[in-house]
Amino acid sequence: MNCQQAKELLSAYFDDELTExxxxxxxxxxxxxxxxxxxxxxxxxxxxFIVAHEVVAPPSDAWxxxxxxxEAGLSQAPNKTWTTQQGLSLLALIAxxxxxLVLLRPWNTAPNDEANQAxxxxxxxxxxxxxxxxxxxxxxxxxxxxTALESLSQQFAGQEAGSGEATRLLGYTPSFAKSLPxxxxxxxxxxxxxxxxxxxxGQCTCGPGGCNCAVGLCERPDGSxxxxxxHCGTQVISFGDLPSEMVRVGDLQFKVLNIGGQRTATxxxxxxxxxxIGVNGREEAKTLVEGLASL
Amino acid sequence: xxxxxECIKLAANGDRDAQLTIYxxxxxxxxRLVLRIVGGNDVDDVSQDVFVHxxxxxxxxxxxxxxxxxxxxxxxxxxxxxxRRAQRQVTVPLLSPTLAGYxxxxxxxxxxxxxxxxxxxxxxxxxxxxxxxxKEVEHLSYAQIAQIxxxxxxxxxxxxxxxxxxxxxxxxxxxxxGET
Lengths: 295, 180
Fold this sequence. Notes:
heterodimer; A: alpha+beta; two-stranded parallel ribbon; elongated; B: 180 residues; mainly alpha; 8 helices
């Protein structure tokens, strides 16, 4: 057996899928051929890599989210209505068209009530909220945290609230209002009303027809600011087609991406989703994920 | 409740408890396979898609094949469809792992190696990742892989050859120093 023939059978040899005779021939060849022997050793190393490569269990809300989707009879995930994949339902197309009307609105104009109502009607019609496009909402050239807060507030009827008022309106105290790590300070908080979430009745404190959401404007010791957004984990948010990366911290994992030059981290913690817009880097994101998840 | 013919029948008729039983027995396995094919960013969405398809098509399961084989095949089809749809989108890691310079196998280095591996793995062809996953993690025979992947048995070995070779090349290109 020549080297080329042996190379073609190396995987089958390694996986013990050859006849006894062929196994013997490859084995003999590998004792004399340094290249094939090295390749077999690399197969061993790769196997160890692959097997050791841990897989995180599904998030705790995976089944409720799936059950909701099965209940709604949707064959496509709600957030997929933002892509041009096949099989869009008529309702999803209505939702998409309505959403585009909202998102194509210039930032410096007043909200288009008609389009906004269409978005909400479409969301109601599909039983699950269409994805809220954070990329579209927060991607503007002069974007900084306070501008982003105003944008979200204008879009979703933001109301200034202290910790007590926020707790009363939301039915819970936002994790970032309880405590912040790293000497960070909460300087302002708004309570927003998002299109209704995908929780079943009694599963959250949002009430019918809406989804409570809290946004905190936070400040670092150096005066720079960022936003934390917290709402029901079943509320679907979308970041369009932005490239992103998953980062793992202990049992938690979060997604990191850039919106208009601002690094953004988003993750699920228990039943709620938190999104930090304007995070400084991986270490700050990790500290925030760990710090806020422990509350 | 266990996953048997009765459970499958109930789940196909929309029984939520039966569906939960099937979900509970397969969620980790499906997620792992999806993760290897589509990568980390969309793993939860695509895993959910798999189960929606699974419950939608459950009435077509004929018990002629192993249930897990049927689920594997469906998972691969849904995941590969997603990959093909997403091929136009470029996924660029924002936080590049440090690729060289580690001198001892401490925790940080192991983390770097894992990140390195994930990056290399994501760069090889999705169909090659499928056969590699079915072999190395599911420990399936070439005959079973051929059945699930819908390819001739003779192709399994050549795909595994390419998968291993490409993965090794990607690791080396990223600065992996081989076995140390």
